[in-house]
Write a structure and sequence with these properties.
The chain has a domain of 68 residues. It has 5 helices and 2 strands, in the order αββαααα. Strand 1 and strand 2 form a beta hairpin. The longest helix is centred in the middle third of the chain and has 18 residues. It starts with 14 loop residues before the first helix and ends in a 7-residue tail after the last helix. 7% of the residues are buried. The mean pLDDT is 80.
């Protein structure tokens, strides 16, 4: 009995590793991004009382989806940058920033 499963040496990567290392998503965007966009849209709707404002969520979602296609961790890195600040105190010495959690 022969199978057509490729040997480990023939694979460039393990297919399961890609799925396990991606962030959890809601229709293609990270859950945090979808929640923030949903809350901002809902708050705008409540304050302005204009039903047309709900149409801005698909625009926000499309922007997030395009960024997620470009790089799986782009939005996570943006959230990390907002949480950690813009520059470390010794950025001139090290010539870069540190995002160590």
């Amino acid at each position: 009995m022969t199978t057509n499963i490729p040997l480990d040496s023939e694979l460039d990567f393990y297919p399961i590793a890609t799925g396990l290392t991606r962030p959890s998503t809601f229709k293609g965007v990270p859950l945090q991004y979808a929640a923030i966009c949903g809350m901002l849209t809902a708050l705008g709707f409540v304050f302005l009382e204009d039903l047309r404002l709900l149409l801005i969520y698909p625009v926000f979602h499309a922007i997030g989806y395009a960024l997620q296609i470009w790089d799986n961790r782009f939005i996570d890195i943006c959230f990390l940058r907002f949480r950690k600040g813009w520059n470390v105190k010794n950025v001139k010495f090290w010539k870069g920033n540190s995002y160590h959690v």
